[in-house]
Amino acid sequence: MTKLTALCAIAIGGTIAFASVAAAQDNETNTSRPQAEESAREITIWRDPGCGCCDDYADYLETHGYDVTRIDDVNFDKRSVAAGVPAQGLGCHLAEIDDYYVSGLVPADIIERLLAERPDIAGITLPGMPANAPGMAQEKHGRLTTYAFGKDGVSVYSDE
Length: 160
Description:
signal; 5 helices; disordered N terminus; globular; 31% helix; DUF411; alpha/beta; Metal-binding protein; seven-stranded mixed beta sheet
């Protein structure tokens, strides 16, 4: 009976933790995660050791006030998929910040928005290696589409 109670508690807790993306975006309801703490500026990046754009991106984040830990991981793509990043939407590295995953060369202002809004999603991704994204360019220029991913699937998080 104790195992059944524990399984029910886990199932209920999981359901609550993964509220729908639509509800998380609804400003009228409070389905967001708790406010980020001071450590929210610490970010870990798993990257292919030979990827120069990932180093440039990490440098970019550091100039925007982040404390970046770089981890060489030739299998970052497998780590990304295991974290919930859609295989067709992989970025060139995987990062984790304050319980969110960030895949690819996501601009700092989009990460700041993620941390401020606290939606109930697993993370965000900027697929591929867009030439106008930070890490490929000095700063973001032009339009970039970043996607949210989580239990309820994939949706556009930012298109700017």
